[in-house]
Design a protein that fits this description.
Largest sheet: 6 strands, mixed
Radius of gyration: 39 Å
Oligomer: single chain
Structural class: alpha/beta
Order of helices and strands: HEEHHHHHHHEEHHEHEHEEHH
Shape: elongated
Distance between the termini: 101 Å
Strand order of the largest sheet: 3-5-4-6-8-7
Number of helices: 14
Length: about 325
């Protein structure tokens, strides 16, 4: 093969660019080839395994690389040959047809069709964990259960859950009521200015969220009104999320639960959610969690303290009460 070795021909053929069309006419005249025939825009013989492709000239509508188009340009003498002397191309694939097929293989594979009905069908979601199953989970399993939870109407609204943060081996678990819009945006409980105030409150009693405090919300998904605003949680929503909070307390190994606001305190103490916080403040409550007992101290939510600065003295007294409460071996009452 003139100018190309067998290895080159094999490579071009594998790339869908063979056989290579070359002119052997000189000075605008048709020149006889080695067999005495006139070689007018005739393909040089491809590899011996497919001699028929050498007789098939590329059609004008074929999309070819520029170099191939230049080499397939026929001289005027060749164009003047009678049509009868040029045999029609045999049936079968034309040269360079594989190029288009190869290009189509580079297109991204479309994703499988999505069933819109099943995307909003609660039955298509993972089965909800029972309180007994939640009570056996480790931290990773608990996070997965919270993320896929459909136990109440708040999470069924499609709100993203807000998981807890802080020390996983903690002296205190600090529990607020329901996730807020700021928490949802930051994906962090007690986000924004209330969180900054809480950090200052904890630091005042020698505690820190990354060192010995785990912070979470009782209700992981923000309860939203029809227009997307915040609303008060229902008793069913609080009861549905309570097993998650209790498991967080057990996994953290905390001796004290500091609740912020009336929602978390009333839920854990079994009181109606609308009961004023004043009825829960001022004492250390025994709380049975799993097989152990912890101390519960209720205080005001930092968001309330930002609106009513005069109540900070009450919160300080609650923090001192929680710090003074010793660890508990059962739910009978505070140590000491």
């Amino acid at each position: 093969m003139s100018g190309f070795g067998e290895r080159d021909a094999v490579f071009l053929n594998e790339m869908g660019l063979g056989p290579l069309w070359r002119l052997r006419a000189v000075a605008g005249q048709a020149a006889p080839d080695d067999d005495g025939d006139v070689a007018v825009a005739v393909a040089e013989a491809p590899p011996a395994n497919d001699a028929r492709l050498a007789e098939a000239a590329p059609q004008p509508q074929d999309v070819q690389p520029r170099a191939v188009q230049q080499e397939t340009a026929q001289p005027e003498a060749a164009q003047q040959q009678p049509a009868a002397e040029t045999p029609p191309p045999p049936p079968g694939p034309r040269p360079l047809q594989r190029v288009a097929q190869s290009a189509s293989a580079l297109e991204p594979v479309p994703p499988p069709p999505v069933d819109d009905a099943s995307a909003w069908d609660d039955a298509a979601l993972p089965a909800d964990a029972t309180p007994e199953e939640i009570a056996q989970m480790d931290w990773d399993q608990l996070a997965v259960a919270i993320t896929s939870c459909r136990r109440c109407s708040a999470c069924r609204d499609g709100r993203p859950p807000v998981t807890g943060t802080g020390a996983r081996k903690a002296r205190w678990v600090v529990a607020a009521g329901a996730s807020t819009a700021a928490d949802e945006k930051a994906r962090l409980p007690l986000a924004g200015d209330p969180g900054k105030l809480l950090d200052n409150m904890l630091a005042a009693v020698g505690m820190g969220r990354e060192r010995d405090v785990y912070i979470t919300n009782l209700i992981k998904c923000r309860p939203a009104s029809p227009n997307g605003g915040e609303r008060a949680p229902t008793a069913d929503e609080a009861a549905a999320c309570r097993p998650y909070l209790e498991r967080e307390v057990v996994l953290a190994g905390a001796a004290t639960v500091l609740t912020l606001g009336q929602i978390a305190a009333n839920t854990l103490l079994g009181r109606p959610l609308q009961e004023p916080l004043a009825g829960a403040r001022g004492s250390v409550h025994p709380l049975a969690v799993g097989d152990a007992g912890v101390n519960l101290v209720a205080t005001l939510h930092p968001g309330e303290l930002l609106r009513r600065g005069g109540d900070k003295a009450q919160a300080w007294a609650d923090l001192c009460r929680a710090r003074a409460a010793g660890p508990r071996a059962d739910g009978a009452g505070p140590a000491g």
